[in-house]
Amino acid sequence: MNQYQKRITELREKLGEDLIIMGHHYQNDAVIRHVDLTGDSLELARKVTTIDAKHIVFCGVYFMGESAELLASEGQNVYLPEDDANCVMSQMAPYTLVDKVLTRIKESGRKIVPLTYVNSSVAVKAVCGKHGGSVCTSANAEKMVRWAMERGDSVLFLPDKNLARNTAKTIGIPEEKWHILNVRGEGSQIDMDAVSKSELIMWPGCCAIHARFNERQIEAARTKYPDVKIVIHPEAAPDVIGKADAAGSTSFIIKYVEAAPEGSNIAIGTELNLVERLADQYEGSKNIFPLLESTCSHMALVTEPKLLKTLEAMENGTAKPVTIPAGLVEDAKIALERMLIACA
Prior knowledge:
By secondary structure, this protein is α/β, with parallel strands linked by helices.
């Protein structure tokens, strides 16, 4: 046990039931070993609403801490070990531009329901809530796109065009009914004719981690292991997903590996920390390996020493909890709660 482990263990014992540490599957093992609750974005959002502890330390990127704070009960505080752990994809959809674009495309005369991927800022979630929309995760995107389609003429899906297209294919929205927005020039270049004819309008963002996966990597894996199974996160491009054996959220991937028979060769296309954890877990019984070693630099900003620093600050009363501007709380919380109700 290193010095950080020892001190973190002492502080956890001291804080007792007043403390819960949550962590996303993409966190590294040095952090995960201290976590009480792990999960993907949907699982962790659901778990926040069941927690009684006064203090929630969320080991993940900033938008996850914001979502936890929105769903936390009165008297609970949420803390992040690293405030600068952000999400490149969420930064592709700044809320002022989202609001401007949404207002403009509504001029088409169609009822457009916005649906933001959970990988977005609290301000973008508030914009969606204000305009009658909601939030989705990779685990429930199909259900939530259907939810949004039932409530309007078309859906604005943001910020991930890949998850949007993969979901559209799965639920059967024809490609001629898709449209990826051009949001350059503060939205001045939007093709309003295309918007007026589309059922699924997509923001042009993507995840840098999952955009690295390609068909050549799949071909190489199949050449090396002819019986290999390929499972990829749906933030990857549709042509890549089309060559895989399965696609789904991090929780789906974990269950897929668990259900595979002994002796299986499985290549996984998602963030490396999860892949390596699964490889260690099934070493000797299943051959688990990354399609490509793709890591999230922002997730990596959360470290064991920073977790310790957060707990020490909580102990001495100097820790700064996540705060959300009062003007955003109601609309953003409504957007999240619509998802939780729809997926209950």
